[in-house]
Design a protein that fits this description.
Elements: H1 3-26, H2 33-40, H3 44-51, H4 54-77, H5 83-99, H6 103-107, H7 112-139, H8 149-163, H9 166-169, H10 174-186
Helix pairs in contact: 1-2, 1-4, 4-5, 4-7, 5-10
Keywords: DNA-binding, Repressor
Organism: Heyndrickxia camelliae
InterPro entries: Homeodomain-like_sf, HTH-type_Tx_Regulator, HTH_TetR
């Protein structure tokens, strides 16, 4: 890569970083190309030249955002730590992510083009990673082989949905999140009752 290409990539990176920061704070609809350009220290024309329009920039930003989140998830997934610690780390990661994103940003992800991107990303990347997590849980004895993968994924989704609502977890203590992890694994009973 020559100097011009490096500078171009650096500008694109700066634009995407500014966009995700502004989108996360204010939501996609409330942020203008001019505001992104100002934050990225580039001209609005540069944004149009590199991304075409705001929708394409938004798609690029969300795609990069999801890929970054997947890298974090995979890093945890392949750590040499006990399975419950992995799930705890994943829950903490989701909680921290939720705290850093405005509800306007989450609501803005209803655009059909963005929804299609999310569906493709979920099918191609997130589901295989979840299946790997489930398999690790089964191999380590934390997920019962009698429970279907579909049910486990639904269970994960229920927890994920809950922690994606900032108003539910914003003021929760670290201990509450640890307790949530315990509930995640053992339910209200703590562990199966001996008959």
């Amino acid at each position: 890569m020559d100097g011009y290409q490096r500078r171009t990539e650096k500008k694109k990176e700066s634009i995407r970083a500014a966009a995700i920061e502004l989108f996360s704070t204010y939501g996609v609809e409330k942020v203008s190309i001019g505001e992104i350009a100002k934050k990225a220290n580039v001209s609005p024309v540069s944004i149009y030249n590199y991304f075409g329009n705001k929708e394409e920039l938004t798609l690029s930003v969300i795609d990069e955002f999801f890929n970054t989140e997947m890298e974090k998830f995979e890093k945890i997934l392949y750590m040499e730590i006990p399975f419950p610690k992995k799930v705890e780390k994943i829950l903490f990661d989701r909680m921290e992510l939720t705290k850093s994103i405005s509800t306007d940003f989450i609501k803005s992800i209803t655009d059909p083009t963005i929804q299609k991107l999310i569906e493709e990303w979920t099918y191609k990347k997130a589901m295989p990673a979840m299946m790997e997590l489930i398999e690790q849980g089964r191999q380590s004895g934390y997920i019962s082989p009698q429970i279907s993968s579909e049910s486990v994924i639904l269970y994960f989704q229920i927890f994920t949905e809950a922690i994606q609502h900032p108003e539910l977890i914003a003021n929760q203590s670290k201990q509450s999140i640890i307790d949530l992890g315990h509930l995640f694994f053992y339910g209200l009973m703590g562990q199966p009752k001996e008959e």
